[in-house]
Design goal:
Shape: globular
Number of helices: 2
CATH architecture of the largest domain: Roll
Structural class: alpha/beta
CATH superfamily of the largest domain: 2,3-Dihydroxybiphenyl 1,2-Dioxygenase, domain 1
CATH class of the largest domain: Alpha Beta
Order of helices and strands: EHEEEEHEEE
Largest sheet: 4 strands, mixed
Number of strands: 8
Strand content: 25-35%
Amino acid sequence: MPLSLHHIVIDAHDLPAQARFWAEVLGWRILSEREREVVIGPDETAPTGICFMPVSDRKAVKNRLHLDLTSAAEDREAEIERVLALGARRVDVGQTGAESWTVLADPEGNEFCVVRPKQTLIA
């Protein structure tokens, strides 16, 4: 059997706050909360979740890996506004303004995108 994706790990200063932010963004739950690890996911049986781990250094440059989120086309702008109200902020990583995505950052500065809806992973 090939390897499968289990967790996406995000370094964080405030693990509980980051976990709450992302759980709210994704409509997920906090599944496990320990001193040095907080895990969120849709439920305990989901194949993939997000794990927050402590880090002491500050984020200094653009992420080398980021999440792309999507929604129904008619909900996209409202979802962006909802995520901004949760504590995200708009960021400029060199966009031209013609992109089909919006770049945001979570409360600790980790970039992510809200992309146009797609029917497949390659469309």
